Amino acid sequence: MFILDTKIKSHKKKIMKTALVYLALSLIAIVINDVYGLFGHGVHSASMTWMFLYPLLGGAVLYLLIFLLVPDIARFVAYRMFYNIYNSGIATLSLGSFLKGIFDIAGTSSVYIAVFYAIGELFVALGLVMLLVLAVNLKKSQA
Amino acid sequence: MKNFFSKPYRWAAVFSILLMGAVAFVLLDTFAIQKALVVVEPESAMVANETAASQSDPVISDNSYEDDNIKISIETVRDDDSTIYVADIQVSDASYLKTAFANNTYGRNIKATTSEIAEAQNAIFAINGDYYGFRDGGYVLRNGVTYRNTARSAGDDDALVIDKDGNLSVVSENQTSMESLSNNWQVLSFGPGLVENGQIVVDSSSEVSQSMTSNPRTAIGQISALHYIVIVSDGRTSESAGLSLLQLAQEFQERGCTTAYNLDGGGSSTMYFNGKVVNNPTDGKSTGEREVSDIVYFGY
User: Fold this and answer.
1) Within an 8 Å CB–CB cutoff, is residue A20 touching chain B?
2) So where are chain A's domains?
3) If contacts are CB pairs under 8 Å, which of residues 201-240 in chain B contact chain A?
4) How far apart are CA A58 and CA A22, in angstroms?
5) Where is each Phosphodiester glycosidase domain found (chain B) (predicted)?
6) Which ipTM value was assigned to this complex?
7) Cα–Cα distance measured from residue B170 to residue B137, given in angstroms and rounded to the nearest whole number
8) Looking at chain A, which residue has its C-alpha nearest residue B134?
């Protein structure tokens, strides 16, 4: 019993750490937007202004919800797969948004931005489905 | 493979490398990799010689040029805390109002300075064009030849049309097919239109993209048949703040223009006359001419 408690604490700690890393990345995204704005001659891009929402809502908030609601899903081996795929999706969306911001401010565009968004959304969707499956299985195992 | 990626950070490391590679590729593709699509054939020597023979000896000063076909005078004025270069240009035929691509090549990221392109064409007077090669959208029709028929997104799609009589008009790319414009002499795609039918069509909140600041500007307007005003303003310096689009439009209206259109500005803004750059091009960080895709020029 004691050993199991330690494992759960360790998993919860990892989830909280991920949420905090995402929170830090959100702040970095805000700083990047502000610094880039200094050189933009007053030109702004919504894609760059709001890119911090990907790590904030998609990252910090989601992992906080996992921490509060279903922290034990981290015990499953498949959690690592969700973790990898979902985080890759958020990273791809954030960088796609950053690139679109750079291009908007420069007054240009690229057809490849759509590829970033498509891959990012696909990975996030896959990750969320895996998360749902894990959460359902956890509830079943606890029932 | 499954075991390989189940170890912490291995997936992250591999995916990060792939993602950074993709970002680097997209940045290079957008800003650096040259894609030459059409090489423009120079006019035949015979035509050039015939044209040259029709020129009379020009009278040239530091800020004026006059021969039988082309008359140019440039004045420098201070207005709105900015230095503004105003060229009054009259030609006898629309064919003296021309455009040229950097390296005589239509494509993406093919660039040269306004003065380099102008010198290659023996231009008497030139300004930067619309920098079409920095974007995938926007109509491109030059010297009577259509190069791009992709309309830009609605709301940011004013195109300048110069017909074969040399008359300027502003159209919306979304409401006007390139096919219907193909009989014109030039179509440039930047904008917005500044003056239409003698009325200012921008307001104090109008801007290129989302910018709200004063900037270096380049724009062209028409007073009457074959009579044009070209304005370039310095900007982003302590000596010259630069103009808003509304201020720029007012400059054209005050000079009697019925139509005026904003071209690429910022660091691109350059006025070239008789072998020299007239204005002080700067992007706000460094001085000197920026390389651009194309120019609008007057010459033979």
Assistant:
1) no
2) 2-137
3) 208-213, 215, 236
4) 9
5) 122-298
6) 0.89
7) 17
8) A108
